[in-house]
Write a structure and sequence with these properties.
The chain is an alpha+beta fold. The chain contains six helices and nine strands. The longest helix has 17 residues.
């Protein structure tokens, strides 16, 4: 199939955005239900097939971007809500688009999640929080208590946790201790051994030992109510 020059340019832009965000065709299919599956992602990236409105919606959600910043041609054919203009002076501007809402749960529930086959049981959340971070099926939120992660993540902040992400050195992770509670700490490697390190220097790092990492923090947000 011949490649249209316009489609090829759109595909190159899309390919660069997906690569920069670390989004593979498999992840778009499995985590976001991309219409047409991995084969269609490949054809969009190479310009063999044009990006469809349905596909653009998924790309925008996965990348956390407005559709017009991915493919202006297709975005122009779609209806999207825009912030209403105001003549009043303001010290605010439109913020990043919300990806969705995730359950805010307790540390005890988070610890139990590591062994659960279905975490979406009725009544499992104390609240739901909106986030601009990319979310997947099992993404959840925890409220930080105490000052062990200050100044990086102050007391009272809500963190968004992705349990399916692979932890890497330097990540903020959620670790399950022997009491099935979840603790948020920095994951560091010292002399070949893994340690859980508080951001606050008043607290001492602890070896990972038998603790189990059950999620990676992908965002931290301040809530006032």
């Amino acid at each position: 199939m011949a490649t249209d020059p316009d489609y090829a340019a759109e595909g190159a832009t899309l390919s660069a955005l997906l690569a920069g965000a670390g989004l593979s065709a498999a992840r778009l299919q499995d985590d976001f239900g991309f219409p047409g599956g991995q084969a269609m992602v490949y054809q969009n990236k190479t310009g063999r097939r044009p990006i469809s409105p349905a596909g653009l919606k998924v790309y925008a959600r996965a990348l956390g971007m407005h559709p017009r910043d991915i493919c202006p041609r297709v975005a122009a054919t779609m209806l999207w809500e825009e912030p209403s203009a105001s003549s009043d002076a303001s010290n605010t501007s439109a913020g990043p688009r919300v990806s969705g809402r995730v359950p805010l749960i307790s540390s005890v529930q988070a610890g139990a999640m590591a062994d659960a086959t279905d975490i979406y049981a009725p009544g499992y959340a104390e609240d739901f929080v909106s986030t601009t971070a990319p979310i997947h099926r099992h993404t959840y939120a925890l409220r930080i208590k105490g000052d062990s992660m200050e100044p990086l993540i102050p007391d009272g902040y809500v963190v968004i946790v992705e349990p399916e992400a692979d932890p890497r050195e330097g990540d903020v992770v959620v670790a399950k201790n022997g009491d099935d509670e979840a603790n948020v700490k920095l994951l560091v490697k010292v002399s070949g051994d893994w340690w859980l390190k508080p951001a606050n220097r008043d607290y001492k790092p602890k070896p990972l030992g038998d603790a189990k990492i059950i999620g990676v923090v992908v965002a931290a947000e301040r809530r006032f109510r």
